[in-house]
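Recall the central idea of this unit: under ordinary conditions, the amino acid sequence of a chain determines the structure it adopts. In this exercise we apply that idea directly, starting from the sequence alone.
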Amino acid sequence: MRRSVKFLAVVTALAVVVVAQTQVATITSTSPFQLRGVGVTPGQGVPSWPVMPGDIIQAGQTPLTLSFSDGSSIVLSPGGTAKVDLAGKTPVFQLQSGSAHYMLKTLSSVKLEELKVTVNPKDVIGDLVIGSEKLPAGWWTTGHTLAVIGGAAGATALGVGVAKAKSASCKGQNQQGNNNCQGQNQQ
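Accordingly, the structure predicted from this sequence is:
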């Protein structure tokens, strides 16, 4: 009996630790911001920071980006505050102040809230704003959306293009002394 009580206690403790350590998203930013009440300064060898259930985030002087595991992302405006949580397995983004721009994979990818009011998005791309506050002029535009999507596509295409160009330039050529075709058609 005593052994089964100890076993149950260990299993319960492990379950609590596993649930408490579930990463909801990652943050990237180009300026200092607050995460879990602690100041974070980017550019010190860490490109992104994990966001756990219950974390409160405050953007600094520049927007910060939350990236979710399904590829959805939310950009929090400079000085904006949000809480990130989980409802079952669904991430929850609760805007507490400022504004945010979202780009979801599906309408139900991330549960969106303004303060404690659930927002039901009509499109996968949109904005959240607290109160009657207007979005800061110029912080997020259609051009930004196109730049983010285009930049990702461009980076992918560039990587594929470079790989194909390198492969094509090495075919059938004697490349002795040229390290550009290492291991390819060298004689």
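The first strand starts at residue 25 and ends at 29.
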